[in-house]
Every structure is written in structure tokens, then in C-alpha cells.
Amino acid sequence: MRLLARTESDTEALGARLARSRPMGGELAVLFLAGQLGAGKTTLARGLLQSLGAAGAVRSPTYTLVELYALAGVTAVHADLYRLRAPHELEDLGLRDWAQPGYLWLIEWPERGTGYLPAPDLEVSFNVQPEAHHIEVRPASALGTAWLGRLGGG
Predict the structure, then answer these.
(1) Theoretical Cys-Cys bridge with 145: which of 12, 89, 135, 139, CB 3.0 to 4.6 Å?
(2) Distance from CA of residue 26 to its chain's centroid?
(3) Domain spanning 2-149: which CATH class is it, in words?
(4) Which residue has the higher pLDDT, 94 or 112?
(5) Residue 77: pLDDT band with limits 50, 70, 90
(6) Domain boundaries in the chain?
(7) What DSSP state is assigned to residue 149?
(8) Closest C-alpha among 10, 52, 2 to residue 29
(9) What is the pTM of this model?
(10) Average pLDDT, stretch 117-121?
């Protein structure tokens, strides 16, 4: 699925659509959010998390690295790996404790955690262009295929 996001609201709306269409089986779901700085990764995460009921501001966890959101029916793990120097640094974050049913992971800069992250279900790629941000959502598992199908793009 490919789309253009001309505004921040467009990107947040895609996040909300992803929240509404996520499979409700309770299994671990992992989204990789990839793209350059300022491409809209956190904006999409904000739309998704707020649609799931997150109250208050949703900001990039660039300095805290991980933020947890206890939401109705799911616990969301929002991680920003931009500041990691090496993938093994993920061991100190305790992410493995949250790799279980009932969790939804939103991982910004997943390439910095190669070998230490679970496989993604959906890969969301952002590419900044002068006229709009190009966003591509690709399934990477059976769960991701079902999710994208519910979203209307698969």
C-alpha cells in the first residue's frame, strides 16, 4: 500500500487507520517505522497511539529510548533506536520482557537494532519529497498480511 501524506494530519490519520484495523487476536504485533529524520515516523505513531486511547502528548522517545502505553486491550511499546551506537545495546532496555502476546511494538529506526528485534509484521517506510511524504506499508508476516487486508490495502 502506498500513499502520499501532504500534511501532518494525513500521517496521523494513517496511524489511526492502522490502530482501527489491527488484528485483535492478542498476539505480539510489531511495526517497523523507517525513514529519514522528520519523515513522519513519530507522527504516525502518535495517530496510532491516540486512536488506541493514549492520553496526553505522544512524543518521540529519542532520549528515553522507550515509552510504554497501557491501553485498552494492548500495551504499546514505542521505541526510538536512533541514539543506539550498536544493536547489542537493546539488551539493556529489557525489550525481551515485552515480546509477548498483548503487546504492540512501534519501532523507529529498526535498522539500528538488527539481530535484536523480533521480525516485523508491518514495515512502514517514509520518504520525504518536496510535494509530500511518500509512505509505503508492506506486510512482512501472516499477521501483517491480515492487518494490511483489514486496512484495505492488501
Answers:
(1) 139
(2) 17
(3) alpha beta
(4) 112
(5) very high
(6) 2-149
(7) H
(8) 52
(9) 0.90
(10) 94
Site of grid cell 537493546:
90
pLDDT score, position 154: 44
Which residue, 117, 72, 122, 71, is CA-closest to 98?
117
The one-letter amino acid code at 69 reads Y
Residues 6 or more apart in contact with residue 73 via CB below 8 angstroms: 24, 26, 102
Q: What is the 3-state secondary structure (H, E, C) of 52-91?
A: CCCCCCCCCCCCCCEEEEEECCEEEEEEECCCCCCHHHHH
pLDDT digits (tens, 9 = 90+) for 128-147: 888 888 999 999 999 999 99
Check: CB of residue 107 under 8 Å from CB of residue 32: yes
pLDDT reported for residue 63: 60
Locate all alpha helices (DSSP H) within 30-86, ordered by sequence.
41-51
Q: Tell me how far apart the alpha carbons of residues 60 and 41 are, in angstroms, rounded to a whole number.
A: 9
Looking at the chain, how many residues does it have? 154
